[in-house]
Amino acid sequence: MQESTREARRQRAVESLGVIDTDRNPRLDRITRMARSIFGVPMSSVTVMDHDRALYLGRDGFDVPVSGRGDTPCRLVTDTGEIITTDDARLDPRFADIEAFLANDLGFYVGHPLKDGSGNVVGSFCLMDKEPRQLTPAEMAEFQDLAAWAQSELLADAESAQSRATQQALLPEAPLEIDDVHVEGVCLPSLSVGGDYFDYGVVGRHVHVAVGDVMGKGVGAAILGSSIRSACRAVSPTISGGRALGTAVDAIERAVLADLQRAGSFVTYFHAVLDLDTDELTYVDAGSGLALLVRSDGTIEQLMGADLPIGLEAQPHEALTTRLLPGDRLVVMSDGVLDVLEDELGWVDEVGSLISRSGDGERSDAPDLVDTITLMARERIARDDVTVVVLDRRP
């Protein structure tokens, strides 16, 4: 393979990691910190090469986040794809033009290539010392183990970031505004990705809001959550009126039932449709029980149905109705929100206090409530995915 082609492939692999705009990774820092302690060297780094830059995403013993590619012997590792070491860098012609390395009076270097899943060399894990030295066979084996760990962490971090970005991209891109209605939501996975799902949109003169919570967390739950999203998107345009919602949720369940049962999972699901012309709010509650209707006078109603969660067994879903008038608000959550509240049992009153009128008589807007839940989830470290959607009819 020509050098230019190999470098182009390598650069694409680096860009696909999604790390070139980050400063450092605490898990990679931990590896370099351990390496310094184990081998008694003054410096260690996990270095990724981005075009003509060397990015020190993990580093200990120095605090330079980036340098020129030619200023580090890690480029030798990236260029050859091999372990590079030297008994005495001051006498090694391969190091003669690496001025920044020699200017720091360094005499020893060992670097191990870090590769992506296709074998492209994206960077190096290295040790540096002032005095010339050699690693014993046992030390080299331990160094290679640390390099494998660094590679695993680098790729895992990139995969997590990409998975999270993909899942977030499947959520509504922006708040919804139509007539006097404002809808906004947030989904905060407890891991890189999660099993919560929410959606909203407009079909004709009907505003749809849906929240699903897949049993479990992580990638498996996220995959199942995506299937719920697809089924919901497929049937929502067929709902000509709120009373057809039960039939639509039946169709969603039929679409995903076999997959959920094979996976041994289920989904709590809440779907509501607001008719903008009649103020009628129709909803189906399949095992959720976490929807509140807050009236303009501060009265709180919990919206609940008797349906089982989706995925346990095929069932007809009952569509219930109420009215959502100007000044009223619909709040739908996943059970992860309960983790970040002060009183899990008294959650209705606590959530009500968050969304009720403030002391000056002005009620906070939907974005304020979403931001409040987001801040609480980050401060209190939720054990489960946290999702909240607010449909606000402005007075």
Automatic annotation (TrEMBL):
Gene3D superfamilies the UniProt entry points to: 3.30.450.40, PPM-type phosphatase domain (3.60.40.10)
Xref: SMART domains: GAF, PP2C_SIG
Annotated GAF domain residues: 23-164
Database matches in InterPro entries: Bact_Sigma-Reg, GAF, GAF-like_dom_sf, PPM-type-like_dom_sf, PPM-type_phosphatase-like_dom
Keywords annotated in UniProt: Hydrolase
SUPFAM superfamilies, per the entry: GAF domain-like, PP2C-like
Residue span, PPM-type phosphatase domain: 178-393
PANTHER family in UniProt: STAGE II SPORULATION PROTEIN E, STAGE II SPORULATION PROTEIN E-RELATED
Record-given protein name: PPM-type phosphatase domain-containing protein
Source organism per UniProt: Frigoribacterium faeni
Phylogenetic placement of the source organism: Bacteria, Bacillati, Actinomycetota, Actinomycetes, Micrococcales
